[in-house]
Amino acid sequence: MWKIEVGEAPALLVDDLQDGAQNDLELKNGICKATATVGDKTYVIGGADDGTLSIEVQIFDRNLGEWVRPTVRGTKPVSCKGLSAVALDDKILILKKGSKPDDQIWFLEVDTQYVRQQQEYLGTEVVAWSKGVVGNAEKPVVISGPSGVGKGTLIAMLMKEFPSMFGFSVSHTTRAPRGMEKDGVHYHFTEKSIMEKEIKEGKFLEFASVHGNLYGTSVEAVEVVADAGKRCILDIDVQGARSVRASSLEAIFIFVCPPSMEELEKRLRDRGTETEEQILKRLRNAEAEIEQGKSSHIFDFILYNDKLVESYEKLKKLLGLDDFVTTTKSAGHGEIDLPIDHSVSKIDNKIIINRISSGEKESKNLIILDVSSLKGGAPGRTRGLNFQAIGSFSNGLTEIEGLS
Ligand SMILES: Nc1ncnc2c1ncn2[C@@H]1O[C@H](COP(=O)(O)OP(=O)(O)OP(=O)(O)O)[C@@H](O)[C@H]1O
Ligand SMILES: Nc1nc2c(ncn2[C@@H]2O[C@H](COP(=O)(O)O)[C@@H](O)[C@H]2O)c(=O)[nH]1
């Protein structure tokens, strides 16, 4: 048995860190941390010792016998009353005790494709947070097409008809605001140097130089919509769509095409928001974009926006909304009633969460969390978690309550 130091935290016994699921390790300073081991590395997760109130991560590399502070990507969860951690293949499931239902389940990615890419890019140890979403939330919708084709118009119609279903991903841009555009609503208008710094810090899901300005979708812009329980719509150019296609965000990709170049030019000119020079630049770029949009295999659907009302009906059809009745489809993600006192174990793809008895006669004693169909992940959300709650009763009967 050998002793190691966790930064400034009290000494831990390495034997306590063996074999992953050692949960709720109470350190001498009272901060609750959980540990999980993936490969040669033990991850110590918990506490909030940097003044940010977010959960911290340290890694003990067993091969090197060294502690490492990784670069952390994704939105960090805020600290809580206690944590449980369970090692999966390339990520660690974290259960936050005493947190709100939509803040209880998180994943710390340690060896996913995204983490490996970031490690290669930064040359440092990287971990990435992603919040777990119960059930299968509808996929985000990526809408691309040349400037002036009518993407914004179609999206505005969709948001007007289905305000509680869709949320717009507010992009960052270095271009100047147009007359009626509001910061934080149409775009986050920003400086080039600030945006470049934030890109380096990994805050963007995708970014591209479009018509001479920088545009990008921050991870937060997509998460804000997901947190509101809405389906995210991204209005981005073809380069951005390609990056999103290569990312972990599973989406539906729609390319909007003009009926002709003449009509595209007319729409751009009639809109009256660009200078002559900008209109010509946008029209030049449009030809290449249309070619890529039609041939690149990025897009699932091509939508010709000729007559607006007809195009909008087609868009609704693509999204399964043509005969939509608001009351028949609700989000219905379900919430896990995670007991504060629990133990956690793993059998294949099932995580068994066992209530540590508090003497109640009728309580949900067991929650089985199915992690076999996880989708998405950092940067963003991990979707597809399913669960069953099983309650045992004093009469020996068992009640099962399940989700999908
Ligand atoms: N089907 C249509 N028929 C005629 N005009 C249209 C049609 N769709 C949109 N428009 C008009 O074309 C102009 C450009 O539309 P919009 O601003 O929605 O384009 P966009 O693709 O979002 O452009 P950008 O990429 O530059 O933001 C607007 O004035 C809009 O009213
Ligand atoms: N790759 C990205 N492209 C974006 C993003 N936000 C908008 N756009 C695209 O830029 C052009 C021009 O937009 P405009 O508002 O200046 O007319 C248009 O094609 C948008 O789709 C983004 O975050 N990423």
TrEMBL record:
Alphabetical list of Gene3D superfamilies matching this protein: Kelch-type beta propeller (2.120.10.80), P-loop containing nucleotide triphosphate hydrolases (3.40.50.300)
Reaction it catalyzes: GMP + ATP = GDP + ADP
Catalytic EC class: transferase
Designated name of the protein: Guanylate kinase 1
Pfam families cross-referenced by the UniProt entry: Guanylate_kin
Entry-linked InterPro entries: Gal_Oxase/kelch_b-propeller (IPR011043), GK/Ca_channel_bsu (IPR008145), Guanylate_kin-like_dom (IPR008144), Guanylate_kinase (IPR017665), Guanylate_kinase_CS (IPR020590), Kelch-typ_b-propeller (IPR015915), P-loop_NTPase (IPR027417)
Family label: Belongs to the guanylate kinase family.
Origin organism lineage: Eukaryota, Viridiplantae, Streptophyta, Embryophyta, Tracheophyta
GO molecular function, one term: GMP kinase activity
Biological source species: Vigna mungo
Keywords, comma-separated and alphabetical: ATP-binding, Kinase, Nucleotide-binding, Transferase
Residue ranges crossing the lipid bilayer per the database entry: none
GO cellular component annotations of the record: cytosol
PROSITE patterns: GUANYLATE_KINASE_1 (PS00856), GUANYLATE_KINASE_2 (PS50052)
Superkingdom in the source lineage: Eukaryota
Enzyme Commission numbers on file: 2.7.4.8
Guanylate kinase-like domain mapped to chain residues: 138-320
